[in-house]
Design brief:
single chain; 250 residues; alpha/beta; 7-stranded mixed beta sheet; 8 helices; globular; DUF1194
Length: 250
């Protein structure tokens, strides 16, 4: 049977009118790592220029420490993912080191160099809840860790943003572990009168989740020692039971 021009046009029109079915692009495979570690660094006004430099040098030194490299190598996968941001007011967080795979001395040195070159900026207030909220949104970006840990370092009590308890509860519901690094400033500040001690505050109000712990740096001069011990403990593949609160001295 011959198909007339009218019929042929109908076939073509029907084909053109048919809905275009788009297949979804395949999801990007997540790279498995032993831990996704978010480092959140306080840069509020209570952290002066010298103290901020001690923080950055402390984190860089931690990733140059052979013990940390050995700890990473000892994990089931032998690699971790790390990102670092600074925080202050509830709406001020600055991502300085995007997610980086660390699987040996070379990649650890690359991360340390990124910290050496990172800008140093100071803001005003202290929003631990803002830091937790921001950190919680960083997970699942290219890496999938058997553990998700946020490491919050700071030298003051939250005074900006929503209640810390609300942000903390939401993070814990997502399976995130919150660890703390409280820096005890030996120069008393007038606005701290009547407030709870910082180490007790971090212990009771900030940290949480399975195996969570608090490292206390007795002054900024002890920060490097504190951060080295803290990250080495965090990345251990099977962290041994340790104290809820550890203290580091210069």
């Amino acid at each position: 049977m011959r198909i007339g021009s009218t019929t042929r046009r109908g076939f073509i029109g029907g084909a053109l009118a048919a809905p275009l079915i788009l297949r979804p692009a395949p999801a990007r495979a997540m790279e498995p790592v032993d831990i996704e570690l978010v480092l959140a660094v306080d840069v509020s006004r209570s952290v002066d220029e010298q103290e901020q430099e001690l923080q950055f040098k402390g984190y860089a030194a931690a990733f140059r420490d052979p013990r940390l490299i050995e700890g990473i190598a000892g994990g089931p996968l032998g690699q971790i993912a790390v990102t670092l941001f600074t925080w202050s007011d509830w709406h001020i967080q600055e991502l300085l080191v995007p997610w980086t795979r660390v699987d040996g001395a070379a990649t650890a040195e690359g991360l340390a160099q990124a910290l050496d070159a990172a800008p140093r900026r100071t803001w005003l207030y202290t929003s631990i809840s803002g830091a937790i909220d921001y950190a919680s949104g960083l997970f699942g970006q290219g890496y999938e860790g058997t553990r998700k840990v946020v490491d919050i370092s700071g030298d003051g009590i939250s005074n900006s943003g929503r209640p810390v308890a609300d942000a903390r509860a939401e993070a814990l519901d997502k399976g995130i572990v919150l660890n703390g690094l409280a820096v005890l400033d030996r120069s008393p500040q007038p606005w701290a009168a009547g407030m709870p001690s910082l180490d007790n505050y971090y212990r009771d109000e900030v940290i949480g989740g399975p195996g969570a712990f608090l490292m206390v740096a007795e002054g900024f001069d002890a920060f490097e020692t504190a951060v080295k011990r803290k990250i080495i403990r965090e990345i251990a593949s099977a962290p041994p039971p340790g104290p809820l609160v550890e203290r580091a001295y210069a």
